[in-house]
C-alpha cells in the first residue's frame, strides 16, 4: 500500500459536524462543574454535616447528558470505534466501501434509536390523556431530569441520523470522484 492509497481521516468537514464538535467541546467544561459540585457535596456532608439534596441528581444528569452527546461528537470527529487491524490494512477504495457499510449500519441503528427515543419521550413528557407533564425523579428534590435526558437522547440520535446521512453522501461522492479520474 503506498501513500496515495491513504484516505485522509474525515475531520469535521460539514457545518453540522463542525457545530457539534464546537458545542461538545464547550459542553465538556461541564465535567469540571460536576467535579466541583461533587466536591462541594463531600465538604457539606462530611465537614459540615449538612448534605445537599440536589448534587447527586445534578451530577448524574450532567454526566449522562455529556455521555449521550459524546456519541455525536465521536461521529463528528471520526473518533468512533473501528477495527483498525482490518481497516488500516486495506486499500483506500476498500476503506470507502467499509465506510459506506458503517454509515448504512449507523443509519439503521440511529433510525431505530430515534423511534425508541420518541416512544420514551412521549411517555415521559405527556400524560396518557395528552397533557404535558415532565417525568420527575421521584426524590425529595424531584427534578424533571429523567424527562430532560430522554429528550436529549431523542435530539442527539436524530442529529446522528442526519450525520450518518451526510457522511454516506460524502463517501458515495468520493467513490464517484475516484471513478471519474
What does this structure look like?
By secondary structure, the chain is an all-alpha fold. The chain has one domain (about 10-180). About 70% of the residues lie in helices and about 0% in strands. Helix 1 runs antiparallel to helix 3, helix 2 runs antiparallel to helix 3 (about 55-75) and helix 3 (about 55-75) runs parallel beside helix 6. The longest helix is centred in the last third of the chain and has 36 residues, at about 145-180.
Q: Top keywords for this entry?
A:
181 residues
What secondary-structure arrangement, pairings included, does this model have?
Elements: H1 15-27, H2 30-47, H3 55-76, H4 84-87, H5 92-125, H6 145-180
Helix pairs in contact: 1-3, 2-3, 3-6, 5-6
Provide a brief overview of the structure.
Belongs to the TRAP transporter small permease family. The chain is built from six helices and no strands. The protein is an all-alpha fold.
Number of helices: 6
Distance between the termini: 19 Å
Portion in helices: over 70%
Rg on CA atoms, Å: 21 Å
| Shape call | elongated
Instruction: Provide the number of structural domains.
Output: 1
- What is the average of the pLDDT values? 91
Extended strand count:
0
What order do the SSEs take from the amino end to the carboxyl end, as H and E? HHHHHH
> Which runs of at least 5 residues are low in confidence (pLDDT < 50)?
1-5
Strand portion: under 5%
Helices and strands: which structural class?
A: mainly alpha
How would you sum up the major sheet?
none
Amino acid at each position: 500500500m503506498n501513500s496515495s492509497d491513504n484516505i485522509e481521516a474525515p475531520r469535521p468537514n460539514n457545518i453540522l459536524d463542525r457545530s457539534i464538535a464546537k458545542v461538545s467541546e464547550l459542553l465538556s467544561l461541564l465535567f469540571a462543574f460536576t467535579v466541583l459540585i461533587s466536591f462541594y457535596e463531600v465538604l457539606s456532608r462530611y465537614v459540615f454535616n449538612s448534605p445537599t439534596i440536589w448534587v447527586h441528581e445534578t451530577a448524574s444528569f450532567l454526566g449522562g447528558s455529556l455521555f449521550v452527546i459524546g456519541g455525536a461528537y465521536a461521529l463528528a470527529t471520526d473518533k468512533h470505534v473501528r477495527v483498525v487491524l482490518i481497516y488500516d490494512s486495506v486499500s483506500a477504495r476498500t476503506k470507502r466501501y467499509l465506510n459506506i457499510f458503517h454509515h448504512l449500519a449507523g443509519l439503521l441503528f440511529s433510525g431505530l434509536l430515534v423511534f425508541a427515543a420518541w416512544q420514551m419521550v412521549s411517555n415521559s413528557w405527556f400524560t396518557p390523556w395528552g397533557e404535558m407533564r415532565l417525568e420527575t425523579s421521584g426524590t425529595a428534590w424531584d427534578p424533571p431530569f429523567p424527562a430532560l435526558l430522554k429528550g436529549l437522547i431523542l435530539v442527539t440520535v436524530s442529529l446522528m441520523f442526519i450525520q450518518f446521512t451526510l457522511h454516506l453522501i460524502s463517501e458515495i461522492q468520493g467513490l464517484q470522484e475516484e471513478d471519474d479520474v
